[in-house]
């Protein structure tokens, strides 16, 4: 058998694959046939993995996530990759939303003095930053959020890493819901309908989240699940308070002029 020099690493080998880096021995010149094969692979990969996973996250979310955690993974898109894809897409969509319009509507429907308007301006900037960076925050908060679900549902058969996967899928689910409502969000931006719609999206996300957790922990007594979920909410609120209180103290200390009568 002829000696082949690997085009990737320069290693000399025999056979169909380089024993050093794993590249194929035969690499055809890039042409239309190559692009056709790549397009077919990409479409089949998206259709067979991504679309299937998205459908499962809405048809039977908790069951699907539990099956993935338990080892039934061949048909599912990789959860971390899914989250990054959706986060990137969400970020692109948010560039088309003018948050200033929403603030103007809220200011117009409230009777406020200059001091209150200034405070509202700062609070809105914080909210605007959060919404603009929502996908990034979903990713950064995953370790903390997973720690909370692990503590709240401790002893129910899943370790911390498995809770990370649960929450990666859940974060993707929340992004999908937000993306699904985007056409309406864009159309009604800067109106009271848009403000109401934002609250509706939050309610939908909350309800779907509960449904997902109930399915994921299938077989557990409902009363015990409710107690565990209340503990989960308590831990979430505690974590939020621990983050907000120092921020509020800093805000009041650096903006004393806003609170002087």
TrEMBL record:
It comes from the Bacteria. The chain crosses the membrane at residues 79-97, 131-153, 165-188, 194-217, 229-253. Keywords: Membrane, Transmembrane, Transmembrane helix. InterPro entries: DUF3667 (IPR022134). This is DUF3667 domain-containing protein. It comes from Flavobacterium silvaticum.
